[in-house]
């Protein structure tokens, strides 16, 4: 199987789906000739023309709103938000409209859009090119939210998202774009929305998370296995709404010691819900308090390199937390 | 339809390409909407329904704009005062009553949304919400889809003058302008946004905003349905000819309080309201039809009786109809799929 | 002490603070002559003139954005969002701007605004006059968020919010407006932001929540005390950001059995964070799983009365959950 | 300042009320900004700094607009290409370098924000962010505060032509129009928003949008600083006279790639860029000053040497300065208060 970069997997998914289904088109700022500021849509305009790889005016509420209209009209728009930090002008269209169209019309109308947006820090982007906006949208009934950590999942989840009958927010991690590469099948396959996946089996501690930080957890787990004989069980949520409750409970029960990781600020993040689910369902199976290692509760994040590094998660931070939990 | 009558082409409506039947039907729809709306107010005051919002005085223009549209191909994104418009594109009084009573059979939302929140795929009426102006970019999306698929379809979106000050108005208009999309943007300027008069909403003229987006904008007197028809027909023709969007500001006046719970005399005078009520477009249009021999008192009586019957029956039906079950009220947050994963 | 309705307490706070401090002004849709659609600003324009009780154009992003500018210029704006459902167009101004102005300028600039918005269902308002938007803003560093349940707290917290040097979202419950009335001192007093308060002492179960549902919990607690001898300990968070961790832990430790209540949808709500905090700090002091009774995960809520009633919390639902927990 | 020189009132700048010293100072600032900016690009290419965004070619108009403002009373809300503007209202090259290197001493943000994200209460420059156009309503808020307090203060806010399509542009302009607030809205139309050309951003003319808000809008050639000064001065006078806002579209061109990471030849030709580079306003303005005897080669050499020294020193200082400590980087999410609860 060919090894693809995470961003290439995303690009491939759009390209293949646009070839397969003429209703699919991408729209956003600079997605055309430039191919997006990260290159995710590179080549699409050349292959599919200006209308199907559509450079929009600089207006996120319109990008979302026009995509919503086109989706209701039967198209399958994939809207790109240049950075997830810049999707907030579209909040009203996402929360008040996309999320509620099926519900409010009693299933008469639907809104099958995908909104792609890069999340996360690590590119010297300062306070507005580094955020994780998951918690803003998490908990809004009617939205699905995915956040792949691997190239395989990125392609499979994006295909699933485009084919999904409901609005899907697709949060891609900009640090993963070129750092993460793994085996990606050619041609179509989907990764089901709503299903977590076990990245690593282990019996000592359970790590639950999504997106980039899981790679740090995997590295830390390898080292802990080698150095300390500690075996971590690692669950990649992949979909953060709806959460895969069964998989969460199973992973937590497996070791009785749970560490939740994400880069989004700790307070009010997805991890709080994961912790709440476990403490609601599985309290007496736990052998240690549920811990969270997340982005600190400050705006993500400063431009200067030491500050950015200090904010972000990394292998060492996770390793320390995992070791600590294992020894609890 | 063919034109009939001896006044052919000598009447204003015929000159615009409207048949006598159409001209009369327009009148009937204005009256139907007015009477429905008055009943809605009554029901609300009697405590039979929990919410009502009125479109009274805006019917002549709403009917006229509907008549300029193609109900087989176009897409409609009305706002909460557009009763006369949705009646004109095919919604029934019974359906409106079901919505007013919030009943399961309401095709708009099964009683989930407030009355006045229209939506019916069958009638090409796009589901709308309460946050104002969000429908403007949607209309642009429908027009974009039409252009992508090479369909001869226009989308019409309406909203109030207060709502035209939301960012989504600007972003939607500009997007449509850049891509020369077949959209008609309709601002029903009725002078107030709840308590806030036009002079506190904007210092400009709303129709003038079109210039900044590179397409034409017109102001038209909402009490003159034939003039409204003309302006919309031209906009529709331009849209179909690939000449892009048009912004139309329909000048009207909200004679009722904003909604049932609003005491409008806290912010405007009775005299002001009466002044505008006297300019009601419905009697004026009736005079027009009467003058050219298409209408008379007998027809009027017959019409009013027919309407009353229709509304009475609809009211009764709506009142008796069941609510959506509480279990069903939790459905359709997401698509329901069968075992094979297909959307049902 | 005079008994005031909750909405009167809010109105009084604005009026008194406008008398005291000429920098304070209110702005929003219909706040002028009409006095707001609920009447919260009634009389202010008559007393303070058009500029200090300012009817704005119908544009929430501008209401927030202009208020932010005025706040940076040294004023103390109190912006009213007509319904919290309609504050989503202002999300970008709130999250990207208000919340980050102090941080991004390294304390050179500040943004002392208050944004008032009515939350909650129960007025036959349908899907867009019934929502609880707390979870959208919760977790955004730089914002403070309060949600009083009593008239006393409403006045005291609003005065504290206006005087606070940072942006405060003030979520008032529209069902409380005229249903809730309690003793409110004349003249100035503040309720500190960030401090929870014990509404009822008890030793059997702990209920933690905020806003309207606490009144149902209090009613249920009275009945349970009388009928079953069960004594509930009830903690009103009052401020939901920053959460009063100490008070939460103390209240949880008090009984070892915790029920969290709020009307906002369960998933991703403030209650998840409360549960996560407890399960992180106090896991082994618990005698029962942490339960949450919240708005179901569907859009809040339908217009038709049976559907609305079914969605909402009430005394009976809470009583059943509290009894169940007590018997655990 | 008093006017001097024999060409008094016969020169364009004197006719506009600018002294010779001011006219010369404007030139110096244009060059200072240009050279600073070129150094920024060099440092970025050399890998010494992690981000740079350029204002090259937009300096003449930025300096001119600053000269029309009152640095004691007005409020400034610039955007990320406004180096020449902020230098003209008092920021130093050293301060810009501290920001470029992201150092603790940077007065804009202590190295928290990207370079080009200006803010300094001392200089009345309001802290800005990356999401475009959010500063437009803020400027309106400053003007509102000024009006409420009876202060003779104008706020100036600038943004790109792409950014003028955000809802906040519309909402902010309309709000200011209704209340006749003293705001100058400046659209620096440089033809591109990253890769997207003007023709895909809007089909209208941006200056025309003012009409829809009830205030005047003007287009002005950004390469002609004296004409820019004239238009801004008039807008400033109008604002102070209580006549409300003005929208000014400065027509310019972005000769550099969008930012360091952008390959602009993917979407435009070298020829197009060269065509515009040839119209650079700085040499043209230098010729103007030379022709009227205010400038010569010797002064130019002396100026360039002075600027180089200033930039060299600033670069060195910026490079050596310490970063904010990681502990301090977590401060000021909220106000810090002392034991008595007072904000420190
Ligand atoms: C985004 C948003 N803000 C506020 C409201 C509350 N609201 C409902 S109707 C209305 C006034 C609308 O005025 P206008 O657009 O002129 O339409 P009209 O009701 O006069 O026909 C307001 C403020 C809303 N529905 N949506
Ligand atoms: C809300 C938002 N969306 C997207 C971006 C990403 N972005 C940064 S600059 C830019 C282009 C701005 O173009 P324009 O307004 O013309 O200004 P210019 O850079 O050309 O001076 C874009 C899309 C952003 N900063 N903010
Ligand atoms: Mg109106
Ligand atoms: Mg530009």
Automatic annotation (TrEMBL), chains A, C:
Cofactors demanded by this protein = thiamine diphosphate
A single GO molecular function term of this UniProt record: oxidoreductase activity
- Signal sequence coordinates: none
- According to the UniProt entry, the coiled-coil residues are none
- Keywords for the protein's UniProt record, in alphabetical order: Oxidoreductase, Thiamine pyrophosphate
Highest taxon of the lineage: Bacteria
The answer to whether the entry has keyword Cell division is no
Please name the InterPro entries in this protein's record: THDP-binding, Transketo_C/PFOR_II, Transketolase-like_Pyr-bd, Transketolase_C
Has UniProt tagged this entry with the keyword Oxidoreductase?
Answer: yes
Question: Where exactly are the transmembrane stretches of this chain?
Answer: none
Residues in domain Transketolase-like pyrimidine-binding? 4-179
| Xref: PANTHER family | PYRUVATE DEHYDROGENASE E1 COMPONENT BETA SUBUNIT, PYRUVATE DEHYDROGENASE E1 COMPONENT SUBUNIT BETA
Q: Per its record, how is this protein called by name?
A: Alpha-ketoacid dehydrogenase subunit beta
Natural source organism: Cohnella xylanilytica
